[in-house]
Amino acid sequence: MKILIIGGTGTISSAITRQLVAAGHELWLINRGNRTAELPDGIKLITGDINNREDEVVAKLGNEQFDAVCEFIGFLPSQVERDIRLFTGRTKQYVFVSSASAYNKPVRNHVITEGTSLANPYWEYSRNKIACEELLMKAYRENGFPATIVRPSHTYCERAVPVSVHGPKGSWSVLKRMIEGKQVIVHGDGSSLWTLTWNEDFARGFIGLLGNPTAIGEAFQIMSDESLTWNQIYQTVADALGVEFKPYYVSSSYLAQVSPREWDFEGNLLGDKACTVVFDCSKLKRAVPGFCATTRFDQGVRHAVAYIKSHPEFQIEDPEFDIWCDKVIDTIENTRQQF
């Protein structure tokens, strides 16, 4: 197949890029060019920012036609409107990467299917994804635009270890606290269920939808079948680090109230990670027979920890977050001592 990816070097799309090239597909990328050294050989790269220099990027595309166009960096309805305009008549399939955070919050049923209603009053990011999906389904119903929607949940790779409460510079600051024997903040009591998916597993499910006629006009979620509590997740991270897990439990609503607004804990926690969810991926498995996520979290996180330890560029310090953690813990402890 001849496939165009908008993005291609992120956590999810990098694995898809590698697998498509390895399978011999003709792969084109529209990418800003910040991480081209990581791209495999054989890609036809169009360097440019389609969000800010649309005319320049479109000129480089020329009159090329594609079997599939995959949008990984579409976050706003205006970006989807642009894609519908640009790729109508130029692709047999348009795949939009949405988000499982779009599902109804607060959760009405912890078992999530593609039929679960979409609504998230806590997170603008999710509401924008919902609006993008609505535009695509309208274009499909009214004009036959060949849209497929994919909803990932928490997908991770070797470059970052997934945790629920971290600052804007990523999870290394949490791992560093663990290594130093400090307490780490866990939202709630750590008992809510969550699903983590290794990016190479996700990529196999995603690629199975490309060129798949049953995927047109449909939405699919792609996740592992493994559901873990956040206590299990953090304990597994600590085990991979070879340290003791010292949790400090704080309610999600309190964390949302006392964190800097730009960290958006209201969205990330109340609108996403604080909710117990179990995903039913039977629809994907019917469309992509044989799909199964094979990487357990304990396996993936050991690989990620080893990779980050050997690559200092991913050990990004976040002193502001570290100070904030200590302040939250000290404030709660001082309040407790007054009673």
UniProtKB/TrEMBL annotation:
Domain of life: Bacteria
InterPro entries: Epimerase_deHydtase (IPR001509), NAD(P)-bd_dom_sf (IPR036291)
Record domain NAD-dependent epimerase/dehydratase: where: 3-220
Protein family (similarity comment): Belongs to the NAD(P)-dependent epimerase/dehydratase family.
Protein name stated in the entry: Nucleoside-diphosphate-sugar epimerase
Organism in which the protein naturally occurs: Xylanibacter ruminicola
